[in-house]
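tokens incoming
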């Protein structure tokens, strides 16, 4: 469900995490791939979890965000447990996993670029179009 950012109520005095840290990476990620995990609110649109994501979206100028509404029905202990669980029960990538991410990224980029012949052909096509306009294109029958 999407709701207006301004409708989300943040009670800063009850937040566990007071230091938001540097949000630049999070903002960049949200711009690049979107908000992957919705912000968690209760039935009255009070923030339960996702404060850093919310602030990053606000800083990006978003007017609406995806939220997940969980009816806590005033159970403050359950809300606290939900906020804590989102940050405690996760596992950071190991160094080996980060290396695998980078290796896979290089493989994908290499496939997207194509082999040397395809890259040269694309370069020549762009050059041809600049020199002679879009009407005349060389025949790709060479490949």
């Amino acid at each position: 469900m999407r709701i207006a950012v301004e409708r989300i109520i943040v009670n800063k005095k009850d937040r566990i995490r007071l230091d938001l840290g540097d949000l630049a990476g999070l903002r960049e990620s949200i711009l690049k791939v979107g908000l992957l995990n919705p912000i968690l609110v209760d039935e009255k649109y009070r923030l339960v979890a996702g404060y850093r994501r919310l602030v990053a979206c606000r800083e990006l100028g978003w007017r609406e965000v995806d939220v997940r509404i969980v009816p806590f029905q005033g159970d403050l202990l359950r809300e606290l447990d939900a906020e804590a669980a989102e940050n405690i029960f996760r596992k950071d990538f190991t160094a080996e996993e980060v290396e695998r991410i980078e290796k896979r990224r290089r493989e994908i980029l290499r496939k997207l670029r194509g082999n040397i012949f395809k890259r040269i052909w694309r370069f020549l096509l762009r050059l041809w179009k600049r020199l002679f306009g879009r009407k005349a294109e060389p025949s790709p029958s060479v490949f």
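note: The first helix runs from residue 24 to 33.
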